[in-house]
Design a protein that fits this description.
This protein is mainly alpha-helical. The protein is about 60% helix and about 10% strand. A 3-stranded mixed beta sheet has the order 1-2-3, covered by helices on one side. Helix 1 (about 1-10) runs antiparallel to helix 2 (about 10-40), helix 1 runs antiparallel to helix 4 (about 90-110) and helix 3 packs antiparallel against helix 6.
C-alpha cells in the first residue's frame, strides 16, 4: 500500500518506508525462525544446542538495517538535488496508517528486548534512521559469535569476586561467553586446599555467577601441587 501510494504521489518517504516494512517482515520472520531453531535441544553434534543462531540472526538483521539506512540516505540526497512535487495530504494519511502498524508491532516486541535476536527485529520496526543502534547491535552479535565476553560482564572483576570466596585459593582459566541471545556460560578452574569444602564452595560459585546473569556454569576443582605430592608420599 505504501509502495503504490509513494509511487503514485511521488513520495520518497513512503517508498522508503515501504521498503523498510518489507525488511521488517523479513527481520521478524528471521528472528522467529532463529528462536525456533535455538529452542531445539542439544544433540551429539551440537552439545550446547543451536542458540548461536540467534546471534547470527541479530547480525543479519543489523546488516540489513544498515543497508536500509544508507539506501534511504542515498536516495534522499538525490531528491535534494532534483526535488519533486508531492501530494502532502495523501502521503500524510498513508504515513499515519503505516506508523500505527509499526507501533502495534513494536508494542508486541518491546517485552523481549533483552534477547539480542528480538532486539534486531525491534530495531527494524522502531525507526528508519537508527544507525547507532544498528552498529551497536552488529558489534554485539559479532562479539558473541567470536566467543567474546559479554559487555555486561567484567572478567577481571568476576575473577576477583570468585577468588574471594572462603576456601578458594585461586581462580584461573576463567571463560565467559554467550550461548545464545540471552543465555551465558562460564567455566573456570578453582584451586583449593582440600576437597572437603567443595560442595559449599561450588554452591557459592554458582550463586555468584547467577547474580551476574550467567546461567550455565562449569567449575573444575584443583588441589595445589604440594598437596598432591603429600598425598603420594
Amino acid at each position: 500500500m505504501e509502495a503504490v501510494a509513494g509511487w503514485r504521489f511521488g513520495s520518497l518517504a513512503l517508498l522508503a518506508d515501504a521498503g523498510h516494512m518489507v525488511t521488517d517482515g523479513a527481520a521478524q520472520g528471521l528472528a522467529l525462525l532463529a528462536a525456533w531453531i535455538a529452542a531445539r535441544p542439544p544433540s551429539p553434534r551440537h552439545s550446547y544446542g543451536l542458540g548461536r543462531v540467534e546471534l547470527l540472526a541479530a547480525g543479519i538483521n543489523a546488516l540489513t538495517m544498515l543497508a536500509v539506512v544508507f539506501g534511504i540516505g542515498w536516495e534522499a540526497w538525490a531528491r535534494f538535488q532534483t526535488p519533486r512535487a508531492i501530494d502532502g495530504g495523501m502521503v500524510g494519511a498513508v504515513a499515519v496508517l503505516g506508523l500505527l502498524v509499526n507501533l502495534g508491532v513494536a508494542r508486541i516486541l518491546v517485552g523481549g528486548r533483552d534477547n539480542m535476536n528480538v532486539r534486531g527485529a525491534y530495531l527494524h520496526v522502531l525507526g528508519d534512521l537508527v544507525l547507532a543502534s544498528s552498529l551497536r547491535l552488529l558489534r554485539e552479535a559479532l562479539h558473541g559469535l567470536l566467543d567474546g565476553v559479554p559487555f555486561s560482564v567484567s572478567l577481571p572483576e568476576l575473577g576477583r569476586e570468585l577468588a574471594s570466596i572462603p576456601g578458594v585459593l585461586e581462580v584461573h582459566d576463567l571463560h565467559v561467553w554467550d550461548l545464545s541471545g540471552e543465555r551465558t556460560a562460564v567455566s573456570a578452574h578453582v584451586r583449593m586446599n582440600g576437597l572437603a569444602e567443595w560442595p559449599a564452595v561450588l554452591a557459592e560459585l554458582q550463586a555468584r555467577t547467577q547474580a551476574h546473569g550467567i546461567e550455565h556454569a562449569t567449575f573444575q576443582p584443583e588441589l595445589p601441587t604440594w598437596s598432591l605430592i603429600e598425598r603420594r608420599d
